[in-house]
Amino acid sequence: MRWNGSTITIFLAALAFATAPALAAGFGTVVPIGGHAADIALDETRGALYVANFAANRIDVVSTASNAVSSSINVAPQPGALALSRDGQYLLVAHYGNWNPADPMKNLITLIDMVSRARQTFAMGAPPLGVTFLQNGRALIVTAKGFVLFDPFAGTFQSVDTFANLSIQLPLSKLLFPPEILLTAVASSGDGLVVWGIGSADAVNQMIYRYDSRTNRVAALTVQASVPLLPRVSVNSDGSRAMVGYAIFGSDFQRGVVEAQYPDVQTSTNVTGSVFGASGQTIYAQIPNAGQPAGPPYTGALTPRLAILDADNLTIRERVSIPENITGRAVLNSAGTIMYAASDSGALALPVGSLNQYPRVAINREDLMVQAGFCDRRVISMPLTITDPGGGNTAFAVSVDRSGVSVSPTSGVTPATVQVRIDPAAFQNQTGTTAIPIVISSPSAINAIAPVRLLVNNRAAEQRGTIVNVPGRLSDMLTDAPRSRIYLLRQDTNELLIYDGTSYGLITRLRTGTTPTRMAFSADRTQLMVGHDNSQLVYVYDLEKMQRNSVIRLPLGEYARSLAASNKATLAVVRTAAAASMSGGVSAWIGASNVTPAYIDNVDLGANIATPLPSMGIWENSIPPESALSPSQNGATILLAQPDGIARAYSADADTFIASRNDVSSFKGSFAASSYETYVVGNNVLNRSLVPTGALDESAGVSVGFAFVESGGLRVLAASASGPGAVQNHATLTASGKPTAMVEAPLGPQTGMTFTRSVAPLAFGYSTIVVNGVAMPQIPTGAAVIALTASGFTALSWYFDAAVSPPVITSVVNAADGTAAVAPGGLISIYGQQMNPVNLATRETPLPTALGESCVTVNGAPIPLLFVSDQQINAQLPNGVSGRASLVIRTPGGTSDTRYLNVYPSAPSVFRTGTAGPLTGLATIVRWNNHELVTATNPVHQDDYLEIYLTGMGATVPEVEAGHPAPSSPLAIVSAPAVVSLGGQPLEVIYAGLAPGLVGVYQVNAKVSGPAPAGLSVPLSISQGGMSTSVNVRVVK
Amino acid sequence: MRTIGKSILILALFAAACFAQQWEFGASGGGSLLNRIPVTNSAGSAEAGFEHGGMFSLFVANNPGRRLGGELRYDYIKNDLAIYSGNTKATFAGVAHAVHYDFTVGINPDSRTRIFAIFGGGVKVYTGTGTEQAYMPLSQYAYLTKTRTVQPMASVGVGVKRQIAPRIFLRTEVRDYITPFPTDVITPAPGSSLSGNWLHNIVPMAGVSFEF
User: Which of A360, A666, A771, A903 has the fewest CB atoms within 10 Å around its CB?
Assistant: First the structure.
C-alpha cells in the first residue's frame, strides 16, 4: 500500500481513537480504564477481565491477551459489583442506587447472558452490595439489608437472612472510591460451596459472614478492629479459610478467633487486596504498612509492594514491587500464574507464576559473622554470593557505610561473589559485637532486598563464651536440660528453632503463629506453649515428637504475650484488642496495637481454651500488656512482673494470687521466680511477700536476664548493645562472684518487650558428696550457661568464672588416621587439655581462625579451625608451611607451650571416619557402583571404580587458600602425582586432587583394571612423594 | 558361564558315543533344600547355608539297555544365601547352575511303573546375585558375597518313571547334589570356623519325558 495523504490521515485518526495502550512498568501491567474500578471478574474462556467502572456506568472488557481494554458494555448506573457464573454463561452486575432522594428503582441487578447477549434487569429494593456465584449455579447477592439467593435461569429470588441497613447515601459529599462507598466485599470458595464476605455499617462496627450453600445458612460476626478491615475477601479452595482485609479467619470463625493478622498494618482507606494461591499454601497480598506509599504519585523511594505470604501464619516470603496500589478484589487464573486486581487506574495484571522470568536478587546468607580478636588481627575476607533466583543476569550494587569494612566489587551482575573485607584494627576499641548493614540494591530487580547483617565481634582475651549465630529477631529462649535442647523464638520468620544442647547445631524448625512472643513449658514439661502478638491462638508443641500438638483458642480479641505453668494453673498475660469504650454485642476484636488493660487468663491445656480470671485474688484482673510471667522451677509459684513497678505472686497451693506490691516506680529487664519463694525483677530481690530485700549490683550493666539455680542464680548484664556484656554467678542472692566479661552483649528490653529472659542454665545432672553422713548438693554437672545475645546465643562453660589454666598440647597428628605425618593444606587433630570450655563445630566457610574461645597459630599465623573442645581441636595447616613448624594455642586461660611438628610436602592418609550400621572407624573408600564404603560385605571387585578420601596430599594446582572449600571448576589437582596399588598391582588413577566443596579433603579416583588379587585382607596403597599409606580391603573375583 | 559351556561340551561328546540308541528328553521342576553348616567364633555361633528354594531341570537321556542308562542334565537352582543366628537372619540373593551326567539303573525295567537309581557327577556353579552393602547383619560370622564359585558335584538319587501315553513318561525323583561348601560366596569371617565341609542339596522333582 502506498503511503499518501489520505492514508496517513486515516492512520492518525485511528491512533487518536484507539484505546490508550496499557502501561507496563517492571513487574505487572496497569490497565487504565478511565474511571474507578469497583469490582472485577475473570472470564478465562473468553480471554477477558470484566471491570465494573463505577462512575462511568459501564463494564470495561480487558483482553487478557493484550492487557488492554478491548471493548465496553454500557450498563445501568453505578455498577458496584459483578460476578461471572461458573459455567461462564451469565455475568451478573449489581448497581448501587442508594441515592438521596431515595429511588428504589436504581437498586438493580443486571443479568447478561454472555452467549446470547440478552439482558434482564431486576429491581432489588435494597442497594445490592456484592454478588458471587455458587457451585449450584445460583448467585448469592448481598444487599444493604440481607442475603438473597438468585436463580439466573428462572429469574427468581429467595431471601436467606436479613440484617440492619449497611449503606452510604449518594451523592457523596466527599471523594470516596467505590469500595469506600459499598464497604462490602464477597467471594466464594474455589469449589463454589462457601461464601465469605464483609460489610460495614460504620467505621467502627464491621460484619463478617460465612454462607454455606449446603446448609443455606449464614453465620455472622460483628467485628471491631483498631485498624479497620478494608472490604477485601479472598477464600481458599474449600472455603475453610478466608483472608478478610489483613486478617485470616478459619475453622474458629464462629468463636470470633483471628488465626493470623498481618503485622504492623497501617490504616488505609483504599489500599488492600489479596488472593489465595493455587495450592492454598500461599497468599498474594498488598497490605498497607510503613514501607509503602499511601497512594500515587509513586515518585519517592517507596513503591507499592505485593507480598508473597505463607497462608497459615502470613510469614512474608518475598516482596515485589508492583506498578500501583491494589484497591479492590484480586483473582487468580486457573493455572495460578496471573493475578488480576482492581487498582488505582483500573486493573492490574501481575504474572505471579512467572517470577523467575523477572530480575530479582537474592543473597546466600542473612548474617555474616566475623570473629576477630586476640589471636588474629589480619584483614578478614568473607564471600557473599549474589544470585538471581530465576537464573538471570541482574545488575546489583553493594554498599556498606562503616570504616574498616569494604566490599569488592561494589557492583556487578548476578551470579557473582563479592568479598567483604573487615579490618579488625578498625574495631580494636570495641569489645563486643557491632552490627553493620550491608545494603544490596538493584536498579532492575523487582524484589525487596533485605540487607545482610554483618556482625563483627572483637573479643579480648578475658571475654568468655562461644557465639552461635542465629539470624533474625529473637524474642525468647528456654533451655530443656533433660532433652539437651535450646528453644528459640524467631519473630520475623514465625519459627520455633530447636538447637541441640551439646553440639549447638540446629535440630529442626517448627512453624509458629504470627509474631511469636514468649513460650512456656507445660507443668509436666512434655509440651511447649507459644503465644503470639498477631494471632489469637496459642500453639502447643509435643516435645517428644517435636511437632505441633494443638492450638488453644483465646477469648475474643486476646493475644497471649506471656505464659507460665504451675502445678495447679497455667496462666497467660493476654493483651486485648477490646477497648472499654467499645460497644457490646461484638463477636470479634482485632487489635493491631495494644489496648489497655491486659488480663490474666487461665489456660486449660486439656480443653484447649483459655478464660479470663474473674480477679487476681483480691485484686482486679487488669494489668499492663507488657507484663510477664515466670514460673518457679518446682511449680509452686508464678511471678507476675509489671512494667509499672507492681509485682504479684500466684501460689499453686492457694490457687490464687497471694501477694501484690508496688514499692518501685517501674520494672524492666530480668524477671525470675525461685523454688524458695524469692524473686528477682530487674535488679531487685524480693522475698516471698514481694518485699524488696536488696538490689543486685548494676555497675557492670543493666540486668537483662536472671535464672535461678537452687537458691542462687545466673545473671547477665548489658551496658550497651555493642558492648561486651557480663555474666555473673550468684551463689546466693546476697553473695555473688565478680562479673565476667562475655564475648558479646545479651539481648535487653526492646520495643514491646520490657522484660527479657536472656540467660538460662543447661544443667544435665547434679553431683553430690557425702559429708559426715549427710549428702550435700553440688553444683550441676555437665552443664553450660546459655545466653540470648546480639548475634544469636552464646554458650558459656558452667565454670565460666573459674580460673582457667593455659591449654596443654599432648600431640598433633593428621586428622585422617591419627599418624604423625602431616602436610600443608591437610587436616590435623590437636590433642590436649583446657583447649576450649565447650564443644563447638563450625559449618561456616571460609573456616574461622578463632572458634569458641580458642585460636591456633602455626609459625605465628592463625590457622583455620573446624572443631574445638576441651581435649581436641581439628584444624587445617596452611599451604605455605613446610619443614619444622611451631604450633601454639591461645585461650582466655593463656598460651600453650610451643609444639613442634614436621610438615612433609605430602603425607597421604585415608580417613577412618566411615560408619555403616554399627561399624565405625571404617576407611573412607567408596565403591562407585553402589556408593557404599568398601567393607568385608562390600568388597572390591574387578573393574570397580573406587573413590578414596584422604588428607595430606599437599600442594595443588590451582592452589586453594586454606580454610576455603575446593572449587569444582577448575578442579584442584595435586602437584605430586599419586600412585595407587591393590595387592601390589597398580591401579589406573583417574583423578587425584581436592574434593570439590570440602576443606582440606582430597579425593583419589582409581579403577581396578585387570584381575585383582582376591583375599580377605589385601593392601590398598596410596603413595605420593615418597610417603605412603595403606588400608587392607577385601577383594573378590 | 564358560565353565558351564565347557562342561556341557565334554559331557555331550561322551554321550555322543551312544548315538542311535533309545533316546529320551524331558523337563522337571521341584524344590531345593540344603543343609546348614554351623559357624562359630568367639562372639557366638550361627548357621550358614541357603534358604529353601526351587529348581528347574532339562535333560537328555540315552537308554541302551533294559536296566542301564545315562542322562545329561542341566539344573537351574534358586536358593538365596543365608546366615541364621537366633531370631536374626541375613539373606542375599543367589542362584546355582548344575551340569552333570548321571547313570540310571532300572530296578524293574519291564514294569509299567519303573523304579530307578541314579548316580553320577558334574559341576555346580554357585553365584551370589544380591545387592552388596557396607554392613550386613551377622557379618561377624560370615560374609554373603556377590561372586561366583565352581564346585565339583556328586549326584545320587532314586526315581519312579511311569508311562502315561505312548512314548510319554511321568517322572518323579529325589536327588542329592553333594558339593563342598562354597566358601567363596559364603565366606567365614576372620576368626570364624565352619563345622562341616559338605553341602547336601536335596532336590525332589517331578517332570515329563518323551522317548524317541
Answer: A771
